[in-house]
């Protein structure tokens, strides 16, 4: 059983709320990446990378679905 891939419609991606959420997450991503460049222990680094991965997954919702044949 394959779960359906969650995608936003073009209208949803153009909504003011979505645009604000994307901007906020991009700012957070930038902050996390800068913080990740600092010297941290392996556990802190792993946690930071996990947070970065989650934000990237969220931001990927902004990508339109691929065109299928």
Number of strands: 0
The proportion of strand residues reads under 5%
Structural class: mainly alpha
Helix proportion range: 55-70%
Distance between the termini: 22 Å
Estimated radius of gyration: 15 Å
Catalogue the unreliable spans. none
H/E series, N to C? HHH
- Main pleated sheet: none
> Helical element count?
3
Structure description:
- The chain contains 3 helices and no strands.
- It is elongated and about 40 Å long.
- It has helices at residues 10-13, 16-36, 42-59.
- The longest helix has 21 residues, at 16-36.
- The relative contact order is 0.17.
- The chain has a domain at 32-61.
- By secondary structure, it is mainly α.
Any descriptors?
69 residues, mainly alpha, 3 helices
Can I get a quick summary?
The chain is mainly α and 69 residues long. Helices cover 62% and strands 0% of the residues. The protein has a domain at 32-61.
Topology:
Elements: H1 10-13, H2 16-36, H3 42-59
């Amino acid at each position: 059983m394959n779960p359906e891939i969650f995608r936003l419609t073009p209208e949803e991606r153009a909504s003011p709320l979505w645009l604000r959420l994307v901007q906020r997450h991009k700012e957070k991503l930038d902050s996390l990446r800068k913080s990740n460049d600092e010297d941290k222990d392996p556990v802190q680094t792993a946690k930071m990378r996990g947070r970065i991965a989650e934000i990237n997954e969220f931001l990927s919702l902004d990508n339109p679905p691929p065109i299928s044949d």
